[in-house]
From TrEMBL, chain A:
SMART domains hit by this protein: AAA (SM00382)
Family: Belongs to the ABC transporter superfamily.
Swiss-Prot/TrEMBL GO biological process terms: carbohydrate transport
Organism encoding this protein: Roseicella aquatilis
Protein name: sn-glycerol-3-phosphate ABC transporter ATP-binding protein UgpC
PANTHER family in the record: MALTODEXTRIN IMPORT ATP-BINDING PROTEIN MSMX, OSMOPROTECTIVE COMPOUNDS UPTAKE ATP-BINDING PROTEIN GGTA
Listed InterPro entries: AAA+_ATPase, ABC_transporter-like_ATP-bd, ABC_transporter-like_CS, ABC_transpr_MalK-like, ABC_transpr_MalK/UgpC-like, Mo/tungstate-bd_C_term_dom, NA-bd_OB-fold, OB_MalK-like
Annotated GO CC locations: ATP-binding cassette (ABC) transporter complex, substrate-binding subunit-containing
Entries under CDD domains matching the protein: ABC_MalK_N
GO molecular function, one term: ATP hydrolysis activity
Signal peptide stretch: none
UniProt keyword terms in alphabetical order: ATP-binding, Nucleotide-binding, Transport
Domain (ABC transporter): residue spans on this chain: 4-235
Automatic annotation (TrEMBL), chain B:
Domain ABC transmembrane type-1, first and last residues per copy: 89-302
Pfam families from the UniProt entry: BPD_transp_1
Name assigned to this protein: Sugar ABC transporter permease
InterPro entries, sorted: MetI-like (IPR000515), MetI-like_sf (IPR035906)
Length: 367, 314
């Protein structure tokens, strides 16, 4: 078990291209941290630098207080689960899991005890004699996790471990990973591009973009209080609506004026925060789940009513997504499936202005 | 009822006799038929150049010296009683096995070196190292013959220059056998190198990374990841090379012509001497057929291992 500290980490490739641009991160003992971001954001490179598979151009990585910059992967006491499992195809499941212990010259009895224990946790006891070829994708992923667990390392590293699984199995394995972490409680760093995985698994989520950390925080904080437009748009599915708007003075209060003249009142408690932007162009951000049908006896404060005409309606079963375009900007809303919504028919909606965000278009930071 | 009606109709349709034209069309469209037709030219070439001569050699080996009457397996019996031939078997085995082992080791070492050179530089080295394999062996062996020449040996000149005595490269049996093996290894190593290089490139990097994280040193990675992952290519390459080396003719013919005192003959050169130079074609054919059972046994075990690993791993 160990803390992991990243101090001004830079990864620069030949030709001066920087994949990681000086990031700082402190990961506490036992913590489950997820690095999330789009392809090319530097999350996998960061993980590989922690693993020792990628050289660090500048900066310092500490595991359990020791600087590991020049320590080879085998001496970092870490275990990694790869996207493509990276199981040794010529070895049985047992040998795959025992390999790391065998190299470290553990007694055979101890190896057997650990492998069987990990196999029990992961429910793969009956697969120990099989070769990886004879396993399904989910089983292979369990074996890869087993290989990590038996080592009882200081840190677990997961590099997009669920990307090769189908949607149903992914959800199942996600729960398994969470269960395993709750059982073994090892410091875990997990890389994914899937924000749902990040939100469901992490104690803290690290959102990366273009080689820098945009925001670090618990999932709920990232969801409710994003610091940048990127984080606001990346976390949540469907993504947050961003509508170009103008912040207008409406007497004592402020109003958000959307394209088409739709005017929505800003909650009074936010007036002071937004006062400096009065009269300016801003981006109005509202998640689809905060733009709903008008409900009877809805006690949410700061509701504002508006009427939109859906152009596309997507019934999902437990909810219906409706899409419309406001002068070229797509706006989505999440409504109750019982509400009759049809393309081309005006639909009265309620915007929960208590959940609104305003973004400065000059800096892309949430105001 | 409606379902029953549908079932009956479907059954009747599938049971109806197909038109002959349609059957022929379907047969022609089958993937196996197309594959067979496309492979037909190759089958004809193999039939004409391999199967027919092999069958004819078997037939010849059962004839008497004048090829006028069948004498059954007498040619084989006479050969087995001949001390010279028993020596040829022994020499062929030593030549083939030692040359193949050396080629495999050197090829693996070179492939490993090349694999770690950046791609740009790798191409030049790969091209240069392939040269011995590309040059016609009869020509390159002539070059070696000149280097081994007792009077003008450049190798001896180098040895003398560093104070070492001259070596009778082709004059003494042990050195002559060694020289033949050296030339065969020189010419055949690039084949191993290129096959192993392809095999090395096919091992996923993630396996090495997983091994490094599991705690493997470079040597352990080679032993537990690289070699097991290359076993099929190693087996196939060794088998192929064994067949070609066993049947080698040109190097022995150009360098030693089987001498001194028949002590460097291998199957092919001895078969040529007995069959063509001594005019006993049936016995020459019998000599060449002796290679077959040895190689068949090796091929059986190698291919069985390859198939088993393919089933388990691929």
């Amino acid at each position: 078990m160990a803390q992991v500290t990243l101090n001004r980490i830079v990864k620069e490739y030949e030709g001066g291209v920087q994949a990681v641009k000086g990031i700082d991160l402190d990961i506490a003992d036992h913590e489950f941290v997820v690095l999330v971001g789009p392809s090319g954001c530097g999350k996998s490179t960061t993980l590989r630098m922690i693993a020792g598979l990628e050289e660090i151009s500048r900066g310092e990585i500490r595991i359990a207080g020791n600087v590991v910059n020049d320590i080879p992967p085998r001496d970092r006491d870490i275990a990694m689960v790869f996207q493509n499992y990276a199981l040794y195809p010529h070895m049985s499941v047992y040998d795959n899991m025992a390999f790391g212990l065998m190299l470290r010259k553990f007694p055979k009895e101890e190896i057997r005890r650990r492998v069987e224990n990990a196999a029990r946790i992961l429910d793969i006891g009956m697969l120990l004699d099989r070769k990886p070829k004879a396993l399904s994708g989910g089983q292979r992923q369990r074996v890869a996790m087993g290989r990590a667990i038996v080592r009882d390392p200081k840190v677990f590293l997961f590099d997009e471990p669920l990307s090769n699984l189908d949607a149903k199995l992914r959800v199942q394995m996600r729960t398994e990973i969470k269960k395993v972490h709750q059982t073994v409680n090892t410091t875990t760093i997990y890389v994914t591009h899937d924000q749902v995985e990040a939100m469901t698994l992490a104690d803290r989520v690290v959102v990366m973009n273009h080689g820098v950390i945009e925001q670090v925080g618990p999932p709920q904080e990232l969801y409710h209080r994003p610091l940048t437009k990127f984080v606001a748009g990346f976390i949540g599915s469907p993504a947050m609506n961003f509508i170009p708007a103008r912040l207008a003075n409406g007497g004592a209060a402020l109003n958000v004026v959307l394209p088409g003249g739709i005017t929505l009142p800003v909650p009074e408690e936010r007036s002071r925060r937004y006062a400096a932007y009065a009269g300016k162009e801003v981006l109005f951000g509202l998640r689809p789940e905060h733009l709903t049908e008008i409900r009877p006896n809805d006690h949410r404060p700061n509701l504002a009513h508006l009427q939109l005409t859906p152009e596309v309606v997507e019934p999902m079963g437990m909810e219906t997504l409706v899409y419309t375009w406001l002068e070229g900007t797509e706006v989505s809303a999440r409504i109750d499936p019982a509400v009759a919504a049809a393309p081309g028919q005006a639909l009265p909606l309620a915007a929960d202005m208590g959940q609104m965000h305003l973004i400065d278009p000059q800096t892309d930071r949430v105001i | 009822m409606a379902l029953d009606a549908t079932t009956v109709t479907a059954g009747a349709a599938s049971g109806a006799p197909a038109r002959p034209g349609l059957t022929l069309q379907r047969f022609a469209r089958r993937r196996s038929t197309i594959a067979f037709i496309m492979a037909l030219p190759l089958i004809a070439v193999i039939g004409g150049l391999v199967a027919w001569p092999a069958g004819y050699a078997i037939y010849l080996s059962t004839l008497n010296r004048r090829m006028t009457a069948s004498i059954g397996l007498e040619n084989f019996a006479i050969l087995l009683e001949s001390e010279t031939f028993r020596m040829v078997i022994w020499q062929s085995c030593i030549f083939a096995f030692s040359a193949v082992v050396l080629k495999a080791l050197l090829g693996f070492w070179l492939a490993h070196m090349l694999h770690h050179i950046p791609t740009k530089g790798q191409r030049i080295w790969r091209g240069m190292l392939l040269l011995p394999w590309v040059v016609p062996p009869a020509l390159s062996t002539l070059g070696w013959w000149w280097m081994f020449d007792p009077s003008y040996s450049s190798l001896n000149w180098i040895l003398n220059a560093i104070g070492a005595p001259s070596v009778p490269w082709l004059g003494e049996p042990w050195w002559a056998r060694t020289s033949v093996i050296i030339v065969n290894v020189w010419a055949g190593t690039p084949f191993f190198m290129i096959m192993y290089l392809a095999a090395l490139k096919s091992v996923p990097d993630q396996l090495y990374e997983a091994a490094a994280i599991d705690g493997a040193t470079g040597w352990q990675g080679l032993r537990y990841v690289t070699l097991p992952m290359m076993r099929n290519i190693i087996s196939i390459t060794v088998l192929f090379s064994l067949i070609v080396t066993f049947a080698n003719y040109d190097i022995v013919r150009v360098l030693t012509n089987g001498g001194p005192r028949d002590l460097t003959h291998v199957f092919a050169s001895y078969a040529f001497q007995v069959g063509v130079l001594s005019g006993n074609i049936p016995r020459g054919a019998a000599v060449s057929l002796f290679m077959f059972p040895i190689l068949a046994v090796v091929a059986f075990f190698v291919l069985r291992g390859v198939n088993q690993r393919n089933r388990e791993m691929a």
